[in-house]
Write a structure and sequence with these properties.
Length: 346
């Protein structure tokens, strides 16, 4: 639809090349053409050989970690990755998109996730390559319990293959299905409704979508302007440095305690108690995070100082809600990661 070429060898997908000539997936198969030997995507390589992994059982090596073994000729399961954080940014999503492509070509109508980490981050990655009638809350509801018991039973939620086309652009790539759905520039994903990085339709109908960073109710930086089919016509531009006077200042304990309660209300219920405890105990400080609202740092968390500059003048209650919204997904991911580290076999 958007110029991507799918080359096959012996009726098996061998290479996915976009309209710019960039190869985004290269696959090699055994002589019988039914067993994957190797998959190379942007940032990672999957070894098709099956080995035993102490956490996942039958598994493939992928980069510095492992993923559950698949029937690549006809994928029927969404794999679990033992340590997703060890993969380069974007590599996991590229693997998932290849799985969706192979499943669709094999006539598989639905796949289920059967792993211990049904996180919000995994949900967002799946939404880029699959369609699902259920919501994020249902998928992530048992995240902590599944991490603690290293669950391998399937979650009864169906994901229908709907792979996107990845097109290389300066500084990254775009993802298109029926329309432009996402732009990744310098490692930051911009999508409709995103926060703070988002794709925004221009007021001028003749102009294309714009990759922008928003804090509060106003644009903080315009990074690029694209066409509807994903070409960059302006940019990408660097995000300006934040010069807020609060950068580097730590939050007082009383503010951390108040935020901990708000974060606990914002994360999935099974994570609430651990999220509250972690947020209250960890240090939180203002920082310049570019296109990110919050991040985990050694010893605690950081939030973008632009939130103070843009939202504090509107009232401290509104600022507190904005801070909790920014911190909630970061704290939730940290909780699940800590649970996984504690329960993983030695």
């Amino acid at each position: 639809m958007h110029g991507t070429r799918y080359d096959c060898v012996s009726d098996r997908l061998a290479c996915v090349t976009d309209r710019t000539g960039a190869c985004h997936a290269r696959l090699s198969w055994s002589g019988a053409a039914d067993r994957l030997v190797r998959l190379a995507v942007d940032g990672a390589v999957v070894d098709g050989a099956i080995r035993h992994h102490r956490l996942l059982g039958a598994a493939h090596t992928v980069g510095d970690t492992a993923m559950t073994a698949l029937d690549w000729a006809r994928p029927a399961e969404i794999p679990a990755i033992a340590a997703p954080g060890r993969l380069p940014p974007g590599a996991g999503a590229a693997i998932l998109n290849t799985i969706a492509l192979l499943a669709r070509e094999a006539g598989v109508t639905a796949l289920r996730y059967a792993g211990p980490y049904p996180t919000a981050a995994l949900w967002r990655s799946l939404a880029r390559s699959f369609r699902c009638d259920d919501g994020e809350a249902a998928f992530t509801a048992g995240a902590l319990d599944r991490a603690v018991r290293v669950a391998r039973d399937p979650i009864p939620i169906d994901f229908a293959p709907a792979p996107h086309e990845r097109i290389a652009i300066p500084g990254g790539f775009v993802e298109l299905r029926d329309r432009l759905e996402r732009a990744v520039i310098d490692g930051v994903g911009y999508e409709p409704g995103g926060s703070p990085a988002r794709l925004v339709e221009a007021a001028d109908p003749a102009a294309g979508p714009q990759a922008e960073v928003w804090f509060g109710d106003a644009c903080y930086a315009r990074v690029a302007t694209l066409t509807a089919d994903g070409n960059v016509v302006d940019g990408p531009h660097p995000i300006p440095a934040c010069a807020s006077p609060v950068i580097g200042r730590a939050f007082p304990a009383a503010l951390r305690d108040a935020l901990a309660e708000l974060v606990a209300d914002a994360v999935p219920a099974p994570l609430a108690a651990d999220a509250r405890a972690l947020c209250a105990a960890a240090g939180v400080a203002w920082a310049d995070l570019g296109a990110r609202a919050a991040a985990e740092r050694p010893g605690g968390f950081a939030v973008h100082a632009a939130l103070w500059d843009r939202i504090a003048p509107l009232g401290l209650a509104r600022l507190a809600l904005a801070l909790a919204e920014a911190l909630a997904p970061v704290v939730a991911a940290a909780v699940v990661r800590r649970a996984a580290a504690i329960t993983a076999p030695a």
